[in-house]
Structures are given as C-alpha cells and as structure tokens.
Amino acid sequence: MRTLQRRWPAAKRIGIACGSGNNAGDGYVLARLAKAAGLEVIVVALCEPSRLQGDALTASKDFSSDGGAPIAWSKNVLPRSDVLVDAIFGTGLSRPLDEHLRECVEAINHSAIPVLALDIPSGLDANTGLVQGAAVKATCTMTFVGLKLGFYLGVAPDYLGALEFCDLGIPHSTEHADIAARRIDTEWLRQSLPQRSRLAHKGTGGHVLIIGGGIGMPGAVRLCGEASLRVGAGLVTVATHPDNMASIVIDRPELIVRAVRTTEQLNSLIEHADVIAIGPGLGQDPWAQALVDATFASNKPLVVDADALNLLAQQPRKQDHWILTPHPGEAARLLGCTTQAIQQTRLQSARSLATRFGGVVVLKGANSWVADEVGIPSVCDRGNPAMATPGMGDVLTGVIAGLLAQTKDRSIAARAGVYVHAVAGDRALLHLGQRVDRGLLASDLFAELPSVVSTYE
Asked: Rounded distance, CA 400 to CA 418, Å?
C-alpha cells in the first residue's frame, strides 16, 4: 500500500485484477487496505472467489466482509482507474497463459494506465525471465520475500518497470539457502575496494598495458586507456598501430603511447606491465593475430575484449589468468551458437564460457553477468538503455583492467568494474535530463568514474 501511495499519490481509483492463486490473495489484501484508506477500489476477478484456497480465500472473504464486491472479468470490464494492479499470476507459472488470462493481460497492456505488479508481472517466468505467451508490462513491480532469478534473465527488464522489494518481515538468512546468484551493490563495492592509502604512488596503482587500435582505429584504445586512469591505474601504456600515435597523444597526454609493428616490440612492453587489456579496435588482420598470440603466450593477468575475443573464437584455448568480456554476439561466436540463444540463456551461457575458456567471464548486456567455473555468479542490475552506444565496451575494459591492476584479484576486478561502469552510466545520464534514454556518449562516463570508484562511508 505504501508503494502505491508513494508512486501515485494523486490516485483515487484503483483497479485490481485477481487470479486464482496466492497472488490473488495479495491483490485482495491490497484491495481491502486501499478501500480502508478511502480509495475507490474495483476488483476484477478472473476466478470465482469461492474457488480460491488457503490465504487467498481468506483475503477475498475479508475484502467482501468490508463491503467489497468483486466483478467477474470479461472483455469489456477492465475498469477505468488511475492505477491498475496485476495480481493475476505469481511465481508458480511454468506454462503459457490460457486464452482467458492472455486476453486480460493484453487488455492491461493496451490500457495506457500505470501498472503495479505484485511479486512478478503475470506471464513472466520467475526462473528464466521469458514470457509465457503474454506478460504484463508493469510500471513498477513490488516483489516479496526474495528477488527472483528471472528478474535478471531473458526479457524481464522490459516487463518489470521499477523494481521494489519487501521482505514481509521474514528474517533473512543465507546459511541454508540455495543461492543461485548474488547481486552486486554499493555495500559490496565499499568492502571490496578499500580506501586508497595516503602513501599511495603511481607504482601502487599498477601498470596497465592496452593493446589495440588497428589502422584508422585510435578511438577504442583511447577510451580504454582513459578509463583505466579514471579508476586509479598508476600508469597506462597504449600499444597501437603507428598511424594512431599522434591522435591519441594529442588528445590525452597522460597516456603513454607506443607504436608497435612487431611482436618483439610488444614483448618488451609486456615485460613491464602488471595487467594487459587486449582487443579494443584491434582488427583481425595478421598484425592483430600476431599481437594476440604474443599476449596470450604471456602469463600476465589479461582482460580480453572485442576483436581479441573474435580471434579467440577462431583458435579456442583455456586459461585461468584472464577476464573475458564478450557482448552477446561475441559470446555466440565463442560458443558456436546464435545471439538469440545467448540472450535466452544468459546465466547458463556465462557459466558455459567460463567452463570452456577458463578465468572469469563478464557477459555484457542488460543485467551483465559475471561467472567463473566454481563460484556463485553475480549480476549487475544497474545501467540504462542509453549505454547501448559505441565505445561503451571499451570503457568497461579499461575500468576492469585498471581495477585489476590495483586489486590483483580477477573476480573482484570483474564484478567491481561492471558495477562501477554501470553506475557511472546512470549518473552520466542524469546530467542529460530526467526523461532521456538515448544520446549518451561513452566518454560522458569519465567525469563520473572517479566518484563512483571512490564511494566510501
């Protein structure tokens, strides 16, 4: 009830669609509370209330005892209201909606009325995030007891709207819980990235070597290099094609830029690096292949992205000392499947990549996943659609490499990097306006990265 009043304080008329299970009980409870608060309440019952069981039956009787009178659903009875509440189907759905339920869901979606979904938008699978024939597109989802794995998979981001959580007063304990994943948050970031010592110097920040930038492609390594500096790397060297040197140096003099023509020249740079990031703007020509071969032969900690991933897909190998950062298309090439298959099974795909190629895998996208072969995977639910823009992945690679140079921990660097990058994107978007969902540039994140990575209590 508090969520309803906080999000829609001017709402006077509430329509609630109630189904046949426990989710319907939540709807009837809300109906009674809303009526008691002086709101006009119309409950549309998709199931005869007398057929309900357990707590749901009790809740419907309590609503009726307080003067409530549900009306049966038909095509033309969706009430005109200020807010619609979806209490049709909860987490138990594992089959496509029947025609009766689908008809109601589609009516809600076509109503242009704000929708509050209780626990989960009806029609959305709580385990996979996939739509079971049709699903409610909520303005806000109020979920209970625990966050559902499916919220971070499949197409769920397009259906949840704003996500709010209530534990219903149930004590939280993970001691005996079967944890499917962990959500990365600010508290974890504070614990994982300790405050920098006042005695810090360039050497303590680590030396990152970024390899990329084929002929005419200086932008990607330029973005990657500055991102590493912005999160605290002590030194950043960019190894690139000779044609790119002038444009990178003149634009960002803090970067050390070295022309690389041969693997011998590259090996001398690898020798002095603490962490290597390879791939941004690299290309896939013989020059690029030679640099990838030399880099993969080293035992330095690696962050592998972009064309380096595409070359890895052509000549697969497994190593433990790298972080792979594929987007869905690159992941599909690595696993020999379609991009659609990756998107439908994002968590399983991240795990499969870690099993096949080793190390830590960051599967980028809405709700980026971080996984390795043995640990509990993590998900980042921050970020926004405006970050779907050129160069954003190059910035992420630089962020992860810079944090790896400082933490010496692949798992922490990958998780922290994904979170820092996403939060910086959210903050940068706010500067463009409250209702903006496009037009963000990758370089807009640079102003935000230092404050995000330095967030301490």
From this structure: 7
Q: Lowest mean pLDDT: which of 229-233, 322-326, 442-446, 453-457?
A: 453-457
| Cβ(379)–Cβ(183) below 8 Å | yes
Distance CA 167, CA 175 (A): 17
pTM for this predicted structure: 0.93
Question: 43 with 28: CB under 8 angstroms?
Answer: yes
Q: What is the mean pLDDT of residues 446-451?
A: 97
Full strand arrangement of the beta sheet holding 71-72: 71-72, 40-45, 13-18, 83-87, 115-118, 140-144, 162-166
Residue 55 CB coordination number (10 Å): 14
> Which one of 144, 178, 212 terminates a domain?
178
Is the pLDDT confidence value at 457 over 60? Answer: no
pLDDT tier, 168 (very low <50, low <70, confident <90, very high otherwise) = low
Which residue matches tokens 């304080």? 9
344 plus 221 within the same structural domain: yes
Q: Is the same domain home to 194 and 313?
A: yes
Give the domain range for residue 135.
Answer: 2-178
Exposed/middle/buried for residue 52 (C-beta within 10 Å: 0-12, 13-18, 19+): buried
CA–CA dist 108, 139 (Å, integer): 11
> Coil, strand or helix: which one is 433?
coil
211 and 336 housed in the same domain: yes
The DSSP output letter for 98 is: P
For residue 166, the domain's CATH number is: 3.40.50.10260
CB 16 within 8 A of CB 43: yes
